[in-house]
Amino acid sequence: MIYPIYLYGHPVLRKETKALTPDYPNLKELVDDMFTTLDKVGGIGLAAPQIGLSIRLFIVDLDPFKDERPEFAGVRKVFINPEFLWRSDEEFTTIEEGCLSVPDINEKVERPAKVKIKYYDLDFKEHIEEHDDWMARVMQHEYDHIDAHLFIDRVSPLRRRMIKGKLAAIQKRKVTPRYKFK
Q1: What is the DSSP track for 58-103?
Q2: Do 124 and 105 touch, CB atoms closer than 8 A?
Q3: Partners of 114 in beta bridges
Q4: 90 labelled catalytic
Q5: Which position among 97, 110, 130, 142 bears the catalytic label?
Q6: CA gap 108, 92 in Å, rounded
Q7: Distance (Å, rounded) from C-alpha 79 to C-alpha 147?
Q8: How many CB atoms lie within 10 A of CB 145?
Q9: How far apart, in whole angstroms, are the C-alpha atoms of residue 109 and residue 97?
Q10: What is d(CA 164, CA 16) in angstroms, rounded to the nearest whole number?
């Protein structure tokens, strides 16, 4: 199943999310469908709120960048009930982010360069990992979604004012992304 993407302005993107339990119904099917959706829409990460579910789950797929970054080959991960244990004080300052829920807007976002995260996989096996660079950035972006934030919340007030018209157009659904949306 391919899910529609919930766009900026939809209340589910700002709603508190709930932790998952091992008995969550059809979890494997949901994750498979999230990867299918991500493959179809061409993203590298997708959080449950972006498909209308207020649960603490996101996926990451860096495999599309394997030609440029061989270390990303096969990197397709599921993060259930993730929690950052720490984030470094180092910041990225030059990388632009975009988001399926905020189409046609890319803005520079500062994020900690390194993170340590605890999460569960599909078998509810706990993992604690440290990541840096792109993986750290993508995880933080998706984590923001499960904390009811969007990357545009992290841009400067001046840039926020400059994209106000574009955000209003998305909120009014006067956009035409290449995928189904709500």
Answers
A1: EEEE-GGGTTT-GGGTT-EEEEEEEEEEEE-S-EE-S-EEEETTEE
A2: no
A3: 132
A4: no
A5: 142
A6: 9
A7: 14
A8: 25
A9: 7
A10: 24
So what's the pLDDT on residue 94? 64
Tokens of 181: 């949306």
How sure is the predictor about 52, in pLDDT bands with cuts at 50, 70 and 90? Answer: very high
What's the half-sphere exposure (Cβ side, CA atoms, 13 Å) at 142? 29
Query: What value, to the nearest 5°, has the Cα angle with vertex 22 and ends 21 and 24?
Result: 70
Tokens of 119: 């999460």
pLDDT tens profile 120-174? 999 999 999 999 988 999 999 999 999 999 999 999 999 999 999 999 999 999 9
Work out the percent of the chain whose per-residue pLDDT is above 90: 92
Q: What's the pLDDT at 93? A: 54
Mean per-residue pLDDT for 65-86? 94
The structural domains of the chain, with segments of one domain joined by +, span 11-171
User: How big is the chain by its Cα radius of gyration, in Å?
Assistant: 16
Full-model pTM = 0.95
**pLDDT bracket for residue 95 (50, 70, 90):** confident
Considering the segment(s) 11-171 as one domain, its CATH architecture is Alpha-Beta Complex (3.90)
